[in-house]
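Explain this one:

_____
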Amino acid sequence: MTRFGLALIVFVFAAQAAPLSFANESPIDFNNGQWYEASVKATESNEVFFRLWLPQDGNEAVIRNGPELIRVAFSQSDSTITLDFPHFDSQITAQHGDEGFQGTWRKRRSNGVASLEFRALPTSSDDWTWLSDEAQEVWREVEYEPEVIRFAIDFAESGIALATVQLTGAAIETDRGWGMSLREAHGTIETPTGDYRFLSGAYSPSGVLMLTVFDGAHAFRINASPDPSNGDLQGDFYSGNWWHETFTARRLGPDEEFELPDPFSEVALTSGDGKLHLAELDTPRYRGKPVIVQIFGTWCPNCHDETPVLRDLYERYHDDGLEVLGLAYEVTGDDERSQRQVERFKEKFGIDWEIVIAGTSDKAQASKTLPDISAVKSFPTTIWIGRDGKVQAIHSGFAGPATGVEHVELVAEFEKLTEGIVGEE
């Protein structure tokens, strides 16, 4: 069996966990359709795997990355299917063939449209019949105690990060001379600018790790294996076909502490009077009111994770005067396109606060538009302003739901800060 075949079987197995439901949304009848093992190709030898459910009839498909379920607009005409991600300005189109679907994922980026090869093969959701007879003889299910492992990562260009990976009790084991067990793995990577969202894949006791995620915006793949000289991991990170960098990773002890920079200390206020000088803030809509300013982009998945939190705060405290102002930094300088993406973003989250198109997503250029802060290091960057117009806190990045406890703690901190600016006189 090739390394590709091994990786594919591992990842298909990883998707066999118990069915999930959508929080606060109507359920989907998964009996009315077919599960597929899907992928987009970052490089010739590195595919980004994910689970895909296509309805027999209806206009919503589902993408699954481990515990995450994502609804996707779906349409079909004859043998062609379309999966649309309008809020990320990306789309999959594919044609049905003898074995499944083949096509292309296209995503608008700042320098044009990127294209990656897409394919999807039908698979069962609840048994092993999708394996060939040969594979069923080779692989068998085994049980392990669930385990959480952590790695301190040093990316060659992006810097430090923390990976937290949960190994479930389920595993598959081979008896054909490879001498390894491959365990289902879920987790995320946290960086000073945000997290990599819901990663899924497999981990072997020898230290080999493979994780991927696809959500219409990201197409990430992480490969890592032990360095023979010291036992630490060395690996490669791919983002689509447009970014690659290497990294090293050291497994942390069970009680070993590892902290990323404080996201509340990454960006400093530089104005002498303690205020953020924006023309919008000097209008009656905001003057004398508590305000949260969200520096974001509609293209940014971490911003999509943060916005529901801000929406909840806005709905709870708007009657007490709270306002939210969005500053959108988009991937192109095309104002018409940017406005379209903003409207899609507002519709997706059901928000009605003001969003101003403030520039492009280049962080250096964005920083020049905001001289009252030291830099825009991350999208999103969130600023709390009191009724006196003075900045109370600046938070860089966002720890989304994939980070678990960190996300819960951050949401609580956001609420505390918001209560502070709303309650002050």
